[in-house]
Amino acid sequence: MANFNLRKAEPKDVPDILRLIKELAKYEEMEDQVILTEKDLLEDGFGDHPFYHCVVADVLAEHQKVEGYSVIGFAMYYFTYDPWIGKLLYLEDFYVMKEYRGFGIGSEILKTLSDTAVTNRCSSMHFIVAESNKASIDFYKRRGASDLSLQEGWRLFRIDKENLLKMSAEE
Amino acid sequence: MEFTIRAATLEDCKDISRMILELAEYEKVSDQVKIAQRDLEQDGFSKNPFFHGIIAEVPEHLKSKEGHSKVGYSLYFYTYSSWKGRAVYMEDLYVMPEFRGKGIGKALMSKVSQLGLAAGCTQLNFTVLDWNKSSLDFYLKQGCWDVTSDLGYHCMRCEGDALEHLAQGGL
Predict the structure, then answer these.
(1) Cβ–Cβ contact B159 with A under 8 A
(2) What mean pLDDT, rounded, does chain A reach?
(3) Rounded CA gap, A75 and A106, in Å?
(4) Which of B125, B17, B7 is nearest to B56 (CA)?
(5) For A30-147, where are the alpha helices, taking DSSP H only?
(6) Whole-model pTM?
(7) What is the pLDDT of residue A171?
(8) CA-to-CA distance for A108 and A118, rounded, in angstroms?
(9) Contact A130/B24, CB-based, under 8 Å?
(10) What is residue A145's three-state secondary structure?
(11) Strands B85-95 and B123-129, how do they pair?
């Protein structure tokens, strides 16, 4: 198997992070939804108050299966808060390129994230998964994740910019 | 009804803690609250806060039966969408029962929207329990949509033993 290295993302990784974000979105059949740019990622992840953190998996040049790419997996996360139990780690994106799956890279990324959660005294790691993504749901359930939407009835709601503007203008 | 909406301060943590418990009781899960006033003070009002709060306050002559003038709150924090960038997550929104129906909840949510937009966010996210019909109706009227219903995204959690196990590299 290709030797890989997990490390904290650096500003130079931004183009690869965006590439992998788009690949994951494509896998979820949502590619046209990605409007984030490299500039956004740079400003929002590597400034004074980062909105997110990232770990990347890279492989040595001689083990590259796909020409030109050494960064072959990533996870994007941030810290959130539950007023009942305190700090949480929220996993926003988690992806390994198809050619590199089945080698334990995903598991190693999850291990690193869980370790980060425990070290930062987070009581839980949260994330969302599309119900149609059976492979990922099984992957997570095998590792002890529970489906809060099914078990407790939580529904994720969203309000987009247009309605946010309307709401913020109301007195 | 006369009321003001303002940013929460350290001194508000006593009332926020009281109202968190009231909200947990309303959601029928008050035994799950492990966070105390002291935790809120540390996690929300130190150098790197994990959440921000806003309070709804009424004047002296409109205080509750028990003498409370802080009658509603919202806790929120900033998150990140790998598709759209900066987002704001509204973790709690609560108004004491005797003060409902007077526009306080809407005003709290409006404030969170304003703050989110000012910080460059393009969406506001939150979760609602599927049996909470009055809240579901309130949010849908504000222009929110149900991501779990429409896109099939389920909220997942990995906690306690499962999280520890994952951190140790177990399957």
Answers:
(1) yes
(2) 89
(3) 9
(4) B7
(5) 38-45, 105-119, 134-142
(6) 0.89
(7) 52
(8) 15
(9) no
(10) coil
(11) parallel
pLDDT band at residue A155 using 50, 70 and 90 as cut-offs: confident
In angstroms, the Cα distances linking B76 to A62, A158, B124 are 46, 14, 10
CB contact under 8 A, B40 and A148: no
Q: Residue B171 has what pLDDT?
A: 57
Q: Which of B75, B116, B126 is opposite residue A157, by nearest beta carbon?
A: B126
A5 and chain B in contact, CB less than 8 A: no
The neighbour count for residue A122, using CB atoms within 10 Å, is 24
The token duo for A57 is 């998996």
Q: Do B79 and A78 touch (CB under 8 A)?
A: yes
Query: Cβ B130–A154 below 8 Å, yes or no?
Result: yes
Torsion, Cα of A93, B87, B19, B32 (10° steps): 0
**Chain B residues in contact with A153 (beta carbon < 8 A):** 129-131
Run of H or E including B160: helix B160-167
Sheet with B123-129, strands from edge to edge, namely B4-7, B52-57, B70-81, B85-95, B123-129, A154-160, B145-146
CA distances B43 to A56, A86, A109, B86, B111, Å, are 28, 8, 27, 21, 21
Task: For residues A82 and B170, give the distance between their C-alpha atoms in angstroms, rounded to a whole number.
Answer: 26
Phi and psi torsions of B104, nearest 5°: -70, -45
- Residue B119 forms contact with A (CB below 8 Å): no
Signed CA dihedral, B29, B31, B33, B36: sign only:
positive
B131-163 per-position pLDDT tens digit: 888 888 888 888 898 898 888 888 888 888 888
Cβ partners under 8 Å of residue B37, min gap 6? B13, B14, B16, B17
A100 is catalytic: no
CA distance B95 to chain A (A): 16
* Closest residue in chain A to residue B135, using alpha carbons only: A157
Q: Measured between alpha carbons, how far is residue A142 from residues A32, A59, A95, A137, A138 in Å? A: 31, 27, 17, 9, 6
* ipTM for the complex shown: 0.87
SS3 call for B79: strand
